[in-house]
Amino acid sequence: MSELTSLTIAEARAKLAAKEIKAVELTEAYIQAIEAANDVINAYVTVTGDKAREMAKASDARIAEGKAGALEGIPLGIKDLFATRDVHTQACSGILNRFKPKYESTVTQNLWDDGAVMLGKLNMDEFAMGSSNETSHYGPVVNPWKASGSNQQLVPGGSSGGSAAAVAAHLCAGATATDTGGSIRQPAAFTGTVGIKPTYGRCSRWGTVAFASSLDQAGPIARDVRDAAILLKSMASVDDKDTTSVDIPVPNYEAALGQSLKGMRIGIPKEYRVDGMPDEIETLWSQGIAWLKDAGAEIVDISLPHTKYALPAYYIVAPAEASSNLARYDGVRYGLRVDGKDIADMYEKTRAAGFGTEVKRRIMIGTYVLSAGYYDAYYLRAQKVRTLIKRDFELAFNDVDTILTPATPSSAFGIADEDLASDPVKMYLNDIFTVTVNMAGLPGLSVPAGLDAKGLPLGLQLIGRPFEESTLFKTAHVIEQAAGRFTPAKWW
Amino acid sequence: MSVDLATVKRVAHLARIALSDEEADRMMGELNGILGFVEQLSEVDVSGVEPMTSVTPMAMKKRQDVVTDGGKADDIVANAPETDRNFFLVPKVVE
Q: Where residue A207 sits, what CATH number does that domain have?
């Protein structure tokens, strides 16, 4: 059984096509792996075993008829942020108590149309607000990685912590995720997996629970670069239901793998060398530079002068949009309701009981910065800074093809870290290298590049021009070939 | 800029979130921490800079003004806490 769950998507696809294995066997192997592991890892908040078996059976029938789709029979985990028809969809929040939508998100529909099998819904930070998966209504996810010689439980990162942990622990072949400030790339880096946030507008946001609409993008977390390319091809589409979906055909990303880097110019931004960055991250970055140079790329020092302002601007823009998006949770149309003495009291009690602490904090910040008298000083200024951040990248991309940076300022940290719990801003600093990319709407990919002294995975980030995801896959593949792949030792 | 307890309570009411005095007090400290962090934006020269309104340079897609969906009243109220004959029920608003 474990042999089946150790197959990558590309390997399983080949074996299914050659009729060496059946989709129902592959799905059954994952269901058993989840049953054995989920009590400790807590990656899934709902397992849809019966539905998975049904979908796998249908896949086997289509394979037999020669009508297999691009992901036929591939078992996937779905982040709880994606609406899945008649299946638990709560963004891991108490306020969406028992919500089961009557519609399917465009991203998941695209996957089912290509033959993929749904194993269940994955844990995440509540409404995707968090960097450790600790804000989930369903409790923290445990990282399948542990420091060598230590038994301490580590976070898988967030907000897509369930997605990253499930992929790393082989509890699904691949997973959907979303990224508003780093929520795909940071957990991918913490778990030795590959994650890509595509260009804003590449994946439809229709049917994805909204956090910050001008920043949210869906993308995959996968075991290797090829699997990430395969998944993104199916997730991405042009969708009339999302007015920000961009009218550009989806290329075959897999075709970029193995292409030469000769003549490519890779930018190294000096502003990403931050104070207090561990030597190991610095070393990893230098190693990445050396690998790309060996592959024939030219390394260019660049400057992105407004980098340090991206995180503070994000913590105005994202909460502002969140406070507006989350106004819909009022106890009337769906989810939790707590009765009150009148309608306003009912709203206030419902939202007090349904939202967790981090979500309340962000709604409060957002409401404050949008309130009369403060709009210009905060929100308008932040949106101007955002223009400057985007301009930095545009100028840099006149000279370079892609940018290489570390993905995170550290490896995975402990669950219930007191230092981080006492100061929200410290937790926010996890996204220091990733958030710039969301602010500029660019594609960013995190690829595992090595282990630190504690034996924990570290990732490098590649940033590309709009809609040049293929360049990121090509470059990441070179890093993966040099660094190898990283799998945690099974302890669960 | 920093917020005092009265401002925290006013913002909580605007956001329709009931806060106990103890929660409001803790929230005040946390909000001031975050506002202190974002304060560094004031050192950026933004004169003559347009605020970002769209991250990708694109005109919003428009469609024909025709009915493309509907007739799903049962689906729409399916998840509501309280309904009656496809209406959402709320506490009495008008006496």
A: 3.90.1300.10
The backbone region for B35, taken as left when phi is positive above 0, alpha when psi lies in -120 to 50, beta otherwise, is: alpha
Expressed as residue numbers, the domain containing A255 is 2-262
* The pLDDT value given to residue A1: 42
Structurally, chain B folds into a number of domains equal to 1
- With respect to residue B37, please indicate whether it lies within any of the assigned structural domains: yes
A160 as an active site residue: the answer is no
In a domain, B78, yes or no: no
Task: Specify if B31 maps to a domain.
Answer: yes
User: Which CATH number belongs to the domain containing residue B34 in this structure?
Assistant: 1.10.20
B42 in A contact zone (CB under 8 Å): yes
- Give A 28-87 residues with CB within 8 A of chain B: none
In a domain, A188, yes or no: yes
The b/e string for A437-470 (b: 16+ C-beta within 10 A; e otherwise) is bbbbbbbbbbbbbbbbeebbbbbbbbbbbbbbbb
Cβ neighbours around A1 below 10 Å, total: 13
The interface predicted TM-score of the complex, written ipTM, equals 0.96
Residue A416 located in a structural domain: no
* pLDDT per residue as tens digits for the range A69-96: 999 999 999 999 999 999 999 999 999 9
Q: Cα dist. A233→A109, A202, A249, A341, A487 in Å?
A: 13, 10, 10, 51, 25
> What residues make up the domain containing B36?
5-41
CA B13 – CA B7 distance, rounded (Å) = 10
In a domain, B51, yes or no: no
Enter the tokens of residue A358: 């981090």
- Answer whether B24 touches A (CB < 8 Å): no
- A5's CB contacts (< 8 A; 6+ apart) are A29, A30, A33, A170, A171
Whether chain A has a CB inside 8 Å of the CB on B60: the answer is: yes
pLDDT of residue A267: 98
Per-residue pLDDT reduced to its tens digit, B24-68: 999 999 999 999 999 999 999 999 999 998 888 888 788 889 998
Is A372 in CB contact (< 8 Å) with chain B?
A: no
Cis peptide before A159 (omega within 30 of 0): yes
Residue pairs between chains A and B whose CB atoms are closer than 8 Å: 169
Which residues does chain A have within 8 Å of residue B40's beta carbon, measured at their own beta carbons? 308-309, 312
Asked if A348 and B16 come within 8 Å (Cβ–Cβ), the reply is yes
Active site residue A183: yes
pLDDT band at A2 (very low <50, low <70, confident <90, very high): low
CB contact under 8 A, B52 and A390: yes
Put simply, whether the predicted model's pTM sits higher than 0.95 gets the answer yes
User: For A251-298, how does the pLDDT look when each residue is reduced to its tens digit (9 = 90+)?
Assistant: 999 999 999 999 999 999 999 998 888 899 999 999 999 999 999 999
Closest residue to B12, CB basis, from A313, A364, A423: A364
Query: In this structure, is residue A70 part of a structural domain?
Result: yes
A371 belongs to the catalytic site: no
From chain B, pick out residues whose CB is under 8 angstroms from the CB of A387. Answer: 49-52
Number of domains in chain A: 1
Task: Assess B34–A contact: CB distance below 8 Å, yes or no.
Answer: yes
